[in-house]
């Protein structure tokens, strides 16, 4: 277990997942679970008012220092003590900040830092406090993109915020996954929970493409699927929360989906069962994702403060904002794809 960045305040991470027809809310409501150009990294982002590259470098150096093992052991013992004594809190949705920060996040950090080598841009576009809605493209056969997005915000945003994700009801039907999803900040993808989280000042994540995004064939990679009727926009309008477009490049290549076993998927109660160049041919080894190089970029937020809550009931306005956000993410995808040197480097 790796102890990494310095101590921070803990408001709200989650597994991920998505709004979608499969989520129990439905594309009809627009809850389908799920800019700009290159803003630069490192000193460029710092110069633009983003996060500070030097602080991140110092954090990396501390994490790799000789006292790393001792710190990890001390944190583990402190965590066990809190679990035994009950000195931790769980919110009304079941979110366990202590478990998320000291168990789940340390397991994900090596994947984020060393396996996918995620490059994060535009974190200055996420507000330091108050409700905000992060809207992202979705891909990769399994929702690794949301997990990496949550780690990026938790570790590298100046306020180290937790991304509260709205999950498909399928997540809460799986015995082991359901309690873990709750404990790591996920809640059911419904209008009421979305508005409640935003109204309480949380940072909320949504992937409007839903299962259509992560289950699309490799031939349609980086082509956004339908965003539904804009339920996520309605929730943001009612809460007066800004909408932050997020673009992820690299996740499409971790499991290139060349086929879908629809019959077996129906038998297992799954929205799809991907067939990739390695799965199921290599057995469990085929479940290992390919080590693609990732870029996550947060675009300029769409301000909703100028609208009244009644605007959420205006279908034309909701459609216009939904389409604008979708187009922003799609154009950013094209820009990032032109910038990257290769899939793996």
* Helix share, percent: 25-40%
Task: Give the helix tally.
Answer: 11
Q: pLDDT below 50 for ≥5 consecutive residues: which ranges?
A: 1-7, 9-30, 32-64
Number of DSSP strand runs: 9
Query: What is the CA-atom radius of gyration, in angstroms?
Result: 19 Å
Structural class: alpha/beta
* Average pLDDT over all residues: 83
Strand content: 5-15%
Distance between the termini: 27 Å
The H/E string reads HHHHEEHEHEHEHHEEHEEH
Strand order of the largest sheet: 1-9-6-2-5-3-4
Task: Explain this structure.
The chain has 345 residues and is α/β, with parallel strands linked by helices. It has eleven helices and nine strands. Helix 4 (97-115) crosses helix 5 and helix 7 (191-199) packs parallel to helix 9. It starts with 42 loop residues before the first helix and ends in a 6-residue tail after the last helix. Residues 1-7, 9-30 and 32-64 have low confidence and may be disordered.
Keywords:
7-stranded mixed β-sheet, globular, 10% strand, disordered N terminus, 37% helix, 345 residues, alpha/beta, two-stranded antiparallel sheet
